[in-house]
Amino acid sequence: PAGAASWSALRELLAAFGVSAELAEDNLRVAPQQRLHPAHYDARDHAELALAATALGLAAPGETVLEHAIDALVRTYPGFIEAAVALGAQIQSA
Known about the structure:
By secondary structure, the chain is an alpha+beta fold. The protein has 4 helices and 4 strands, in the order αβββαβαα. It is 43% helix and 15% strand. Helix 1 (4-16) packs parallel to helix 2 and helix 2 (47-59) crosses helix 3 (70-76).
């Protein structure tokens, strides 16, 4: 998605991990120095959201569950699973 819709999706993703952000015109303002928490997030088969959720999940303490993410990531980045595991991810397919 483009424009405000993509900012809205990103804001929703950040909120799932406990990050406060607000939309202002065509910008996204993220409050500084926030602590991440693990999330259960549906990436809706959207590679960019899935990649951002993976990065946030790796940075958050505890277990993060991503739904509808792997297929989009593997299509976009065929070596994704190996790279994520090298960074510490434990990937299980349901």
